[in-house]
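Data availability excerpt. The first of two example chains:
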Amino acid sequence: MADMKQTPGSKSSVVKKLKATAEASAYQKEWFAGLKKRVEAGEDFGYLNADVPMEVLRAMDIPFVVNQWWAAICGAKRMTKKYFGLLRDAGYRDDLCSYCATAFAESLDPDDHKVDADGKPLGPWGGLPDPTLAITRLTCDCQSKIFELFAKNHGADFYAMENTVARKVPLKWFDMAADDWENLYDTDRIDAAVEELKELIRFLEMKTGKMFDINKLEHVMNLINEQESWYKKTRDLIASCHPVPVTVVDTINAVMQAQWQRGTQWATDHAKGLYEEIKELADKGEAAVPNEKYRLMWIGRGIWHDFGFYQRFEQKYGAVFMWSMYLAMGADAYIRNHVEKDPLRALAARYIGMEDFLHMPPWNSQWYLQQAVQNDIDGVVYMVPENCMQAVEGSYFIKKTLEDAGIPVLIFKADPVDPRKWNADTMTGLVEAFIEQRVIPKSGS
């Protein structure tokens, strides 16, 4: 990456290093084209929020798209300015949570499935096919209404799953989640989640005519455990490397896309290939940033509309963004061993805690601190969306926990998919000042 030419704050092209990153993007496009053909042939198609237990649909062979992944695609394709203009013109508030509302805003676009004079699709990847199912969990006050309106515009059946809240909070959940998940959660909380899964299965069987098979779910769960175990090895390998062989520009893209394919043989094989490719670079002593001096942690969702942002501090400061939640959450949050005892209960134990891990202190704050220490982090850049209540996630407590441990934190507000308020020069300047005034003095350089 040392040959990358750019000026601070410029919207330069993103330099990606790994074959696994390019392979994930290529596979997603091919898979999405195949999904559209299945929908056109009359199959039911689900649109799911990220915290919905997609493993059930995977085991039943019901095609689906994940809301947050699709929002990232729309952001990367620079479609969100248009979509949120349509949302505003339709009389909706201009500060709806963009990550959740992007697909709803897209559903207002009359040109989404059309092509231009040259035959080029106007919508991202030809636009989202009409779902027949729209499924979310009640983890946010506005999410259910957004999904309900989205379902109405597409003529889909809307289905909402309940959410529960923890009564006990083990500080080191990441040491318990894989093997001791029965003690990590309240028993009645897992019991309730299992009943929710059974209700979802009944709904899907009635709607699609496809039958649920517990043996297929066990197979899916085992594939996911294998996939996430490769992510754990990859995460720990990168943490141990000085300098690091890859940055978040590669790992976010490679992992985020494959996570939405989890439970497939392709996703498991891809996770293994990602590890092997990075291991080869590490064994050769290759550096993503040859002049690495400072290791930065990125907390928050990806800036999908300006991914080059992460690389603007490498040449000038030797500052490398080397950690994100995408790879690290895969390593710690998804693995549930002992699946063979009760696959449905293991799945319940996987998804009920995801919002706690990401959005609720001290679950998240203690994990971020543990990860910062493991990765020898010099500074944390923390993006808090202006219009997402979940993603505020106790930002005060996260910042305090890290800074009490001597790790400087920069918090700024931005939007992962809506670029209307994003100024590359201003945001780059904020991080440069943070590096110069807090990271460099802290390290004694």
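And the second chain:
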Amino acid sequence: MGFKLEQIKDTTVLEASKKGGFESLLKKEITFSGTFFNAKRKEAFYSELSVLLKAGIHLREALDLIRGNQKKERIVEFYSKMISELDSGYSFSEILKSRTEFTEYEHYSVQIGEESGNLVRITQELGAYFAQRNERRRNLLNALTYPIIILATAILVVVFMLRLVVPMFEDIFKQNGVELPAITVWIISISNFVGSYGWMLVFGIFTLIALRKFLFAQPMIKRQKDFLLLKIPFVGEFIKAVYLSQFTQTTALLISSKVPMLNSIQMVKRMIRFIPLQSALDIMESRIMKGSSLHESISDSKLFDNRMVSLIKVAEETNQTDYIFEKLSQQYTVEVDQKSKLLSTIMEPFIIVVIGFFVGVILVSMYLPMFRLSSVLGG
């Protein structure tokens, strides 16, 4: 049975390696960009550092070279403080641990790299992880940018019609005493509501956007949001693929680092802040502790598909768990890329059809009374 996560904080990495097989490299982290040293800068930092260290340059000189390439004063000062602490006798891992810009997973990864002499490999893999994460984010933004622009434009068109076009027709109908159909009365009511409370709605939307981080930090709200996302057609499958890609990538790296499976699951739960996955991993951990095999522990979960269950079963039978998880990670990464492109392709016509429907309803509701008006004017 593996050790508890709390024990990692109370022992050195060297001791952990002696007790639980904590040997090569421990790598992985989830970064939440509330810091200026975001995932993009981390990608460049770890990639450059690994190249310099592999070339035989000392760590201090490598950090100094990276500092010299920076243009922003804040970043230069950031690296200067790291170099100063390094000169004061602190290890690189201790420097990372003392800074909120780095997570505990980066700290433990680098600490193991220092203890085992694999710091070059650690920094290289950290750079590769952040590169993949940033690429995934770019693909998602590219997939959503154009549909969002179309949606925003369409909403403005609908609002324009409700605030300017509908009131013009309403005045004409009132002046001529035309009896209005139910759909026209309904559209006019919406127009009046938007005119009276539109600014309040806009203010409320911007307030929610401004407070989204605080609101989504609340456990109950976050839980409801995460489970709701999975229920959205197609979008839910895309989001599930994203987190399964992260899960398999993390697990593959931890297992290849000789971290026991139970401990890998515990660490993944702390790295990936997605409630459905965390709940599934809780069940998975509980079943493993009761003696179930890995594939049996996930067989009943709706989050893990049959492909993963079958391949993990094969991995256990052939003792190639790290290899299978690595291949699963590659497959889910490809799936995420494909789904992001398909998401963009599907959303564009869908938004156009939906907005076209609303515009059509408004026009029909305004033109229906025109037939009665023509008979009134003709009479």
